[in-house]
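R.M. (postdoc): so does anyone remember the format we settled on? I'll just put the structure tokens first.
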């Protein structure tokens, strides 16, 4: 991971995230640390792909981001279940980090990271 690319991605993340953080590291999580969830995720990722010219034919948002308003306390989970007749959606399968974005920017294409944070060779292209 090059320092120059990390700096560019970190600057982009700071400019486009809802939460303000003092320090952005490769381990900074887009959802938990930066507050990028639900309806905010698609425009954020589109802007990222465009800004860094990352080729991505398909991005599985539900794999990385909860739907809008699902990061919820018990009472909201109860109401969600009552209204929708089903439990709240499970948490995302993977946590997307700034390091994952840097890797994609360096490669120029989106390769899904696995649960350990390493790219899956050939997946998600």
């Amino acid at each position: 991971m090059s320092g120059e690319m990390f700096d560019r991605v970190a600057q982009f993340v700071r400019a486009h995230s809802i939460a303000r953080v003092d320090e952005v590291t490769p381990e900074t999580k887009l959802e938990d640390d930066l507050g990028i969830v639900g309806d905010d995720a698609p425009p954020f990722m589109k802007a990222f792909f465009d800004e860094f010219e990352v080729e991505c034919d398909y991005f599985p948002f539900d794999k990385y981001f909860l739907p809008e308003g699902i990061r919820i306390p018990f009472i909201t989970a109860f109401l969600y279940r009552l209204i929708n007749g089903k439990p709240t959606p499970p948490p995302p399968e993977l946590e997307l980090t700034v390091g994952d974005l840097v890797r994609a920017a360096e490669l120029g294409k989106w390769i899904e990271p696995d649960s350990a944070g390493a790219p899956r060779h050939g997946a998600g292209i």
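R.M.: ...and that's the designed sequence above, right after the tokens. Also worth knowing: The domain at 3-107 is CATH 1.10.1200 (Non-ribosomal Peptide Synthetase Peptidyl Carrier Protein; Chain A). Residues 3-16 form the longest helix (14 residues).
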